[in-house]
What we know:
By secondary structure, this protein is of the alpha/beta class. The protein has 2 domains: 6-126, Rossmann fold, CATH 3.40.50.2300; 137-228, Winged helix-like DNA-binding domain superfamily/Winged helix DNA-binding domain (Arc Repressor Mutant, subunit A). The chain is built from 8 helices and 10 strands. It has helices at residues 14-26, 37-46, 63-71, 87-95, 108-126, 157-168, 176-184, 194-208, and strands spanning 6-10, 30-34, 51-55, 78-82, 100-103, 137-140, 145-148, 151-152, 214-219, 223-228. The strands form 3 sheets. Strands 2-1-3-4-5 form a 5-stranded parallel beta sheet, with helices on both faces. A 3-stranded antiparallel beta sheet has the order 6-7-8. The protein has a two-stranded antiparallel ribbon with strand order 9-10. Helix 6 (157-168) packs across helix 7 (176-184). The longest helix has 19 residues, at 108-126. It is elongated, with a radius of gyration of 21 Å. The model has no long low-confidence stretch (mean pLDDT 85).
Amino acid sequence: MTTSPRLLLVEDDFRLRHDLEQHLLQRGFAVTSCVDGIQGLRALQDERYDLVLLDIMLPGMDGLALLEALRQQQDVPVMLMSALGNEQDRITGFTRGADDYLPKPFSLAELDARTDALLRRMAMLQRPPLPPSNPLLTFDEQAQDVLHNGQSAGLTHSEFRLLITLHEHGGEPLSKAFLYRHVLHRIYTRLDRGLDVHVCNVRRKLAAIGAWHLQIQAVRGQGYILVGMEKP
């Protein structure tokens, strides 16, 4: 079972805040919205978040002051948003502990790419290491298949590319957009279920040959990850 990433959005512009909140909810985030720095600080004191989207120009306590207060307590990733675009503003943001800087106006596609990258980076820092590779498991690149204890899984070429791509990234969650480009060689659209079908097929074929120690798991709002499991 996966849980929705918790995201704090601090933005005083009503229209932008509403549009971003609706978009992020559709992407599977659990969103808390605040209209100023004081509300944002209280929210951060009450709950832990996976990501903070923070406008700089806020009434009362501005975004940089909120960021400075936050960094005294938490290491949650923070993406600053601002129409201030000069180099010094960006440097100040990074100096005070920002992880990324998104200049306004921005597209939702760029927002998605940057939020996904930050969440992947945090997942890489927090993930436990995969167990050593099972000596009975072999990736046969020439045959485009995987074998366990000498038994072939019977993967298709696309299924093999999916499994080896996840394996090469060592437990890092990979977004659906990334997997569609690198595995299925096409652009991801929300109505396209092709990747999900391949994931189900690989899971079934790995189980059929007894490769219990590798499982593909869904990560809500991020994509898929290959994890090592202890033997039951």
